[in-house]
Amino acid sequence: MTSYTLNYAMPDANGYFGEYGGSFIPPELQTIMDEITQAYLEIRQDQAFIAELTDLYIHYVGRPSPIFYAKNLSKKYGADIYLKREDLNHTGAHKINHCLGEALLAKKMGKKKLIAETGAGQHGVALATAAALTGLECDIYMGEVDIAKEHPNVVRMKILGANVIPATHGRKTLKEAVDAAFGGYLKDPVNQFYAIGSVVGPHPFPMMVRDFQSVVGQEARAQFADMTGKLPDHIMACVGGGSNAMGIFTAFLDDPVKLYGVEPAGRNLEIMGEHAATMTKGKPGVMHGFKSYMLSDENGEPEEVYSVASGLDYPSVGPQHSYLKDIGRVNYTTINDDEAMSMFFELAKVEGIIPAIESAHAVAYAVKFAQNEGRGSSILVNLSGRGDKDIDFAVENYGKKFGVIL
């Protein structure tokens, strides 16, 4: 890939995708956010910036990431299943795509420090990597539960020079990490740049992260056509905040391709606090500075959420996803913990690929779909990350159930 676009029709000038998005933040912070918006709108037209980012994508990240035809999985389940291998990127996931863009923008704006939240740790590792590359300081806020669960990524962040700051309130997972990161950002928004880790937050972040991630779909569209002579029938991606899904969906929104966002049904889809299926069970509300679907109580406050995948347990979702749900362009569905963990081990045994638990949700749905209405069709799954970070947790908690005993 030698060039790509950062220009899309949505959102509007105020950051809205239909009725979703916007910026619900204090006036003093809005001034800073307006500066970021203006800087980004200018820089995405700057051919020198695009050339610099593209060069890093090719020579540092290793893009384009390949599409792999999973012939063993395809033969087993009766559909042609393809995997967009974002797990092969430097740092092991799609997160590096927007982290490099945000770090370069922060550097050009004269910021001194990058700060962010992380759940599974992939965004934290990617941002720590980008900070090291650009010579910026880096603070990563991470829930105490996830610090214990995703220990390998915590070590990586520290080796890369980042400060890992525990979020110790509430359930001590991703939502609380976002709370803590916002608090840290408010202490010095002039010198710090909050590099939000998904297509969430106040404008311009849902737009900006989507734009940087759209390289995934732009590559995939060309690659799939080269491989097969046509476009896929179906495209699937896991959805927590929704960055990897928007990354691959964006290039196909105007094509006759069916799109599926796969949410975590957790332990029980019918019990609040036991899942994180925002689009399936949520309603519109405002949280963390933007309007979108969210899982909320009768007072509009965020509900507790849960998923076996640390990167998916967030009680809201990117505003463009909410818009795409309302207009019927994307089908949002769910996979539970056991289905995801079963696929975590199965993909390893059948194709020799250990996926991130987050990504395993999407592959699990592809297989379920293939066995039913998808027989004989072509399915492209965004394999958003690799499972190195998850192996200890997976074997300790699910190994016996799925035949892996150390």
Descriptive overview:
The protein is of the alpha/beta class and 406 residues long. It has 2 domains: 24-59 and 95-210, Rossmann fold, CATH 3.40.50.1100; 62-92 and 214-398, 3-Layer(aba) Sandwich (Rossmann fold), CATH 3.40.50. The chain has 16 helices and 14 strands. It has helices at 27-43, 47-61, 71-77, 96-108, 122-134, 144-149, 151-159, 174-186, 205-213, 215-228, 243-249, 278-281, 319-326, 337-351, 357-371, 391-398; strands at 16-17, 20-21, 67-69, 80-85, 113-118, 137-143, 163-167, 192-194, 234-238, 258-266, 283-287, 290-294, 330-336, 378-383. A 6-stranded mixed β-sheet has the order 3-4-14-9-10-13, sandwiched between helices. Strands 7-6-5-8 form a 4-stranded parallel β-sheet, sandwiched between helices. Strand 11 and strand 12 (290-294) form a beta hairpin.
